[in-house]
Specification:
flat; 6 domains; transmembrane helix; ATP binding; Immunoglobulin-like; 806 residues; Jelly Rolls; alpha+beta; five-stranded antiparallel beta sheet; six-stranded antiparallel beta sheet; Ser-Thr/Tyr_kinase_cat_dom
């Protein structure tokens, strides 16, 4: 039996449903499937399915049920395209949602039907989904299926409207919705209000709000800001409007403030306020009252501040007593201040003028008095202290004007202002005319650099050549080239001065002048200096004359280092030979470098061992198979010669290991590691692979420009003898992977396998160039692997039995 479509009716409850029924309890291995049509998910991220079903108790089938179960499975299958063919029915193609049981009860009699309702949900990402019901031996009836998704409904809260928002893909997901302010409302902060939508479709945790715009008030339900005054006033007679105006201050039923009243802040809780004295609101819905003609209020003043004017008079107004009640009996004496008093010249010389004055006698009834300077004949290079930009206001009664021209007439104007001056047509100021003094005919010379650091120089100069003049002080003016108007000045009584905190790779201009009892002399011609970060290049008065100190110093340092490198090479090589000569013959015999062979001499002059090799001067000498022989003419009994040879022969691996471990080029004391590596590259590599002269110069220049790389010094470690008792025995390793693990380089196992290197014998034949081809580019890793390979070679050669010819 399979799923069968039937009708389910219950007239008492008004139910007439089409249902699917299955009851294969009399069979074993039951596997009945029922699919829903393709259900498109639309905008939903999570789909819910509600199942109404009934189930018979297995106790109704005593002895006849072979596979009676009391559960069924709910599965789903996501798909991007709807097809006419049913989806695959294999269990592995579907995802199990849940195994559903009749939690509300199973009926045991034919007339007693218990309807169970279960709800499950799944996250969806594709176009749609198939649901499947799998029966494996239960007696059930599927009565109704409902598929739906959940969304938080559209809502208005805090004068903001939030749209319908679908829940997230998970049961714990929270979606954020941004609200849109209602008409005549605005955000209370920089961002719109937000509401959180929970997975169960409810809103919670409102952040932010909207406030009614100035001149509007929210309604009782906080749903909108209505313009009820403007709409209703168009239909009311003038008498009703006047009556409404007289009552509006006590009965705030209008959502928009009427004429004569204002609302200073959006969403103000105080409602509409009456205008302050000497101000009026000619229209409805204003956020600020306007000042009467001849009265002022500063922009930075609060909106409830009364408007003021300079002349004093009692406050009178035709407005109702209720409107001006909070401000009655006030008199106001405020406005723009009068001009400053007693403007005086305190000091004047060739380039500087100092002025001072007294405050105005009438401050305009305000305390925010400030002053402003103007000079029509001054150029842009003139500076005003304490006013940095000349036309900016300041609150001191003294100003120093600098960088003026000698023998020049200047007209200075000093303005007095307060918070309402910009609203008045009057400009109250006082002026004075000053003529600067004549320039003293003396000038410093020979401006030069006497000390240099990376961001600091020491500048020196010669005093003016006038023995009858006493120098009181010097003024040094320095600036970035091209920014002469933004110069800095330094006063000193010495003929030199340091200048710290200069920017690297920047050109600076310097000018110096002297001051005597007669005044200041002329500035010297601008001298330009270029900060390079290492050495200062002096350009001088003429920008086309450049002396590149860096190039000369670099060449000298390179030549000196090359000389030291060659000297160290020969000295260390000779010391290495002397050290080898001090050893026992069995440890380090004399090595003679010839065309392709090495002669090993032992105590017995009749035994000579010849090794074919390529004996240049590599760091790891490659020694080929030995050919050992004895001279038979010196022995009457050849057996005696063999015994003598076996007793006296020198172990070739010991000789090779001694040569590798004891005759390397060590680093000099306190030698930087980078420089020692350059020395090794020049000594240990083949002739064709050694760095060229040009590359050596570039390397040394790079080291000079980056001195931090020279801080790490070489640590001379005692070279480990690969044949020493404590040396690791690499011949016991059985695979390349095991060897790489022993040297902690297993990360390169894939490189070796890709190159077909599968044995240690193949590894022992690798060179430094082979490692680079394998993709091992780090110098430290190359060195570590090559050291292990050399140890492996020495230990492998020790295990090879030396043959001999008689």
């Amino acid at each position: 039996m399979r799923w069968v479509e039937e009708s389910f009716t219950n007239f008492d409850k008004g139910i007439n449903w089409r249902s699917y029924v299955v009851c294969d309890v009399a069979y074993s291995d039951v596997n009945n499937w029922l699919w829903t049509p393709f259900i498109e998910r639309g905008p939903a991220q999570r789909i819910y399915i509600e199942i109404k079903f009934s189930m018979r108790d297995c106790a109704l089938f005593p002895g006849t049920a072979l596979s009676c179960k009391e559960t069924f499975s709910l599965l789903y299958y996501e798909f991007d395209v709807a097809t006419h063919e049913p989806p695959p029915w294999q269990p592995e193609s579907y995802t199990l949602v849940d195994r559903i049981a009749a939690d509300e009860g199973r009926f045991t009699q034919t007339g007693d039907v218990i309807i169970n309702t279960e709800v499950r949900s799944i996250p969806v990402t594709k176009k749609g989904v198939y649901f499947a019901f799998r029966d494996q031996g239960a007696c059930i009836s599927l009565l109704a299926i409902r598929v739906f998704y959940i969304a938080c409904p559209e809502i208005v809260a805090g004068l903001a409207r939030f749209p319908e928002t679908l829940t997230g893909p998970d049961l714990t997901s929270i979606e954020t919705a941004a609200g849109q302010c209602a008409a005549h409302a605005q955000n209370s902060g920089p961002e719109p209000p937000h509401y959180l939508c929970k997975a169960d479709g409810t809103w919670y945790f409102l952040t932010g709000e909207c406030l009614c715009q100035p001149g509007y008030e929210p309604d009782d339900t906080m749903q909108s800001c209505k313009d009820s005054w403007g709409e209703e006033s168009m239909q009311m007679p003038p008498s009703i409007i006047i009556l409404a105006l007289s009552l509006s201050h006590s009965h705030e039923t209008w959502c928009q403030c009427p004429p004569g009243r204002y609302q200073p802040q959006p969403g103000g809780k105080k409602g509409c306020l009456p205008c302050p004295p000497h101000s009026f609101a000619p229209h409805a819905g204003l956020s600020e009252c306007r000042c009467d003609p001849g009265y002022f209020r500063a922009p930075q003043d609060p909106k409830e501040t009364p408007c003021t004017r300079q002349s004093s008079f009692p406050f009178h107004s035709s407005r109702s007593h209720q409107e001006r009640a909070p401000f009655k009996n006030y008199e106001f004496f405020s406005g723009p201040p009068s001009a400053p008093q007693n403007l005086t010249v305190n000091f004047v010389d060739q380039s500087t003028v100092i002025l001072s004055w007294n405050p105005p006698y009438n401050t305009g009834g305000r305390t925010d008095i400030r002053y402003r300077m103007e000079c029509d004949t001054c150029d842009e290079s003139v500076t005003y202290l304490p006013a940095p930009a000349g036309r900016e206001s300041f609150n001191e009664t003294k100003v120093t004007i600098s960088r003026l021209r000698p023998v020049t007439k200047y007209r200075f104007q000093v303005y007095s202002e307060n918070g309402v001056s910009d609203q008045s047509d009057e400009s109250n100021y006082v002026h004075i005319t000053v003529t600067t003094e004549a320039q003293v005919s003396l000038m410093v010379s020979n401006v030069r650099v006497v000390d240099v650091k990376s961001t600091e120089i020491v500048l020196a100069w010669d005093a003016p050549n006038d023995p009858f003049t006493d120098i009181e002080m010097y003024e040094v003016r320095y600036f970035v080239k091209g920014q002469e108007g933004n110069a800095s000045t330094v006063l000193t009584k010495k003929d030199e001065n340091p200048f710290p905190n200069l920017e690297q790779r920047t050109e600076y201009g310097f000018q110096v002048r002297a001051k005597t009892d007669q005044g200041w002399g002329e500035f010297s011609t601008p001298a330009v200096y270029r900060m390079t970060g290492h050495v200062l290049a002096f350009v001088g008065d003429d920008e086309n004359k450049e002396v590149h100190i860096i190039a000369g110093v670099t060449v000298a340092v390179v030549l000196l280092l090359l000389f030291l490198l060659l000297a160290a090479f020969f000295i260390i090589r000779s010391r290495g030979n002397e050290e080898c000569r001090k050893k026992q013959p069995s440890d380090c015999d004399t090595l003679e470098y010839r065309n392709g062979e090495v002669l090993s001499r032992v105590d017995n002059p009749q035994i000579v061992t010849t090794h074919t090799t390529n004996m240049t001067t590599p760091l790891f000498t490659q020694v080929g198979p030995p050919r050992t022989y004895v001279d038979p003419h010196t022995y009457e009994d050849p057996n005696q010669a063999v015994k003598e040879f076996a007793r006296r022969e020198v172990s070739l691996p010991s000789l090779n290991a001694n040569h590798q471990g004891k005759c390397k080029l060590p680093a000099p004391m306190d030698c930087p590691e980078a420089l020692h590596q350059l020395m090794l590259d020049c000594w240990q590599k083949e002739r064709t692979h050694r760095p060229t002269f040009g590359s050596i110069v570039q390397t040394l220049d790079r080291l000079i420009r980056c001195p931090d790389t020279l801080r790490k010094l070489t640590q001379n470690r005692p070279n480990q003898n690969p044949l020493a008792p404590d040396a690791p025995d690499l011949t016991r390793l059985s695979s390349v992977a095991e060897w790489l693990t022993s040297v902690k380089m297993s990360r390169y196992l894939e490189n070796f396998e890709r190159a077909g290197i599968d044995s240690l014998e193949h590894v022992a034949r690798l060179t430094l160039q082979d490692l680079q081809v394998l993709g091992i580019s780090l110098v430290g890793h190359q060195k570590k692997i090559m050291n292990s390979i050399q140890t492996m070679r020495a230990q492998m050669s020790l295990n090879i039995s030396d043959g001999f010819l008689v």
